[in-house]
Amino acid sequence: MTSSAYTQVLYAACGVLVLAGIGVVWRRELSALLRLLALQGAALALIAAVQAAHGRSVELAVVAIVVAVVKAVVLPRVLRRVLARDDQPREATPLVNVAASLLAAGMFTLAAYAAARPLVDLNPTPAGRAAPAALAVVLIAFFTLVTRRRALSQIVAVLMIDNGIAALAFLIAAGVPLIVDLGVTADVLLAVLVLQVLTARMHTHLGGTDLDDLRELRD
Q1: Domain ranges in the chain?
Q2: Dist. CA 161–CA 126, nearest whole Å
C-alpha cells in the first residue's frame, strides 16, 4: 500500500467512525443505532487492517479480522435479539433533544481535536493526526450514555466507548498485543450477553426497557 493510499483510507475510516457516532446521537430508532454500531465496528476493523498493511503486521491483521467479526457482526446481531423482544423500537424521550445533541456532538468533536493537539505534535504521522477522531468518539459516546433512557441505547453507548478506545490504541500504538485485544474483546462480548439477559428480565417484569421505570421502583 502506497503512502498516499494509506493516508486516504485511514482518514476515511476515521471519518466514518466519527460520523457513525454522530449518527447515534441523531437517530432515535433503536434499529438504526444497531446499524450505525455495526458500521462503526467495520470502520474500526478497517483502521486496524490499514495499520496492519502499512506496518506489515500479521498480528494486527488477525486483530482486524477478530474486530470485524465481533464488532461488526456478532455484537449487533446479539443486540438485535434484544430489540426483537422490545415493543418500543424508539428512544421516545431522550434527556436532550436532537438539535441540542447534534450541537453537543460537534462541540465534543472540536474539543477532542483541541485537547489532542499536543499528542498530534508528538506524533505527526497520519495515524497521529487521526487520533483526535477516536477521542471524539469516546466523548460523544459518554454524552450518549448520560442522555439516553433506554437500556439498549446505553449498551450501544458503552460499545461506542470501547470502539473509540480501541481506535486510539490502533492509531497511537499501532495496536495492542494480540492476547490483550482478544481478552478485551471476549470481555466485551460477555458483558453484552449479560446485558442481553438483564434487558430481557426488565422487559418481562416491567414491560419495557426504559430505565425510568427502575427509578420509579426505587422511589
Answers
A1: 3-218
A2: 22
